[in-house]
Amino acid sequence: MIRRFFAAVIVVGVAAALLVIAWPNLFGLAEAPVVAQLVSVRALTSVIAVAAAITLGLVALLWAGARRFLAALALLAMLFALVNGAVLSTRGFGDESFPTRAPAELSVLTWNTLGDAPGAERIAELIIAEQADIVVLPETSQETAIAIAELTREADRPMWVYSIAFDYVAKARSTSVLVSVELGRHEVDDTVGNTTVLPSIVLRPLDPGGLTIVGVHPVAPLPGELENWRADLRWVDGICAGENVVMAGDFNATADHFRIVDPSAAVAGLGFGECQNAGLLTGNGAVGTWPTRLPPLLGAPIDHVFVSPDIAVTGMRVLTEYDGAGSDHRPVVARIILG
């Protein structure tokens, strides 16, 4: 009797834990310790759950005395995997089809370079290949950004360079943005605050009707940085407002950490502030951008492009061909049309 009671307690406890991990926003726990990290890798935890369910099922066949208990745990693991799969399917497992670029389209590229790891030539090669007009490079020094701009200028793609650094000890504490000269000049807005540990940058247009460009890099939700991470996401949520806004970078956050921007748009209406996520809008919201050592569908989609509602997103891709370039992040490119 006592053994059955404890078995029931364990089953109920496991069910509750898996429900929180699978649907954290139901309980307001998406930013809670452990949950914040696990929910970022839904696909990976689903694979682990399926493997656990198979193992438990096989053991249950051999151990008659614990068959019901183990079968119940196996069933919970399978249900957990199915719920995660359903959630990820609504976000999109990837649609990399890009139509021929229209004259009115702009290309937005973001890549966390892990402290300039790919090198200026490789980054410039990507910018030129994608004909990028806006390039957000977290963990990229001003020196490397200038070298990149010199290379793109030689390829008839001149770009302005804007960089910010919290210090010059670690390149991870730098963020650089390159903007096509065709989009006009910008100035850094240092009146709106910043993220706490790693720098973000807000560029305001000097010309009327120009684009506001925000390059962001919230700190990762490590156990010792959770409060700073939450503060960073609140800052991001407040900064993306108004018209003609493009925000991109390494957000260290997945759709589970987004806010509701447009309830009528269902999943695609998730974002930050007034801005919507290009990945969710194009069916690429479940494609992992970190780490490169994992297949895209098992990784965490934490690198993003967001746009204000007046901007249309015509396509987005997570680029896997640069997995061996040195960074542990994948580049993300999106095409947009201004309203």
Give a quick precis of the structure.
This protein is of the alpha+beta class.
Q: What can you tell me about this protein's structure?
A:
GO terms for molecular function: endonuclease activity; exonuclease activity. Keywords: Endonuclease, Exonuclease, Hydrolase, Membrane, Nuclease, Transmembrane, Transmembrane helix. InterPro entries: Endo/exonu/phosph_ase_sf, Endo/exonuclease/phosphatase. Residues 109-329 form the Endonuclease/exonuclease/phosphatase domain. It comes from Microcella frigidaquae. With 339 residues, the protein is α+β, with helices and mostly antiparallel strands. It has 2 domains: 2-91; 105-337, Deoxyribonuclease I, Chain A, CATH 3.60.10. 34% of the residues lie in helices and 21% in strands. The chain has an 8-stranded mixed beta sheet with strand order 5-6-7-8-12-11-10-9. A hairpin with a 6-residue loop joins strand 6 (201-205) and strand 7 (212-216). Helix 5 crosses helix 6. The mean pLDDT is 95.
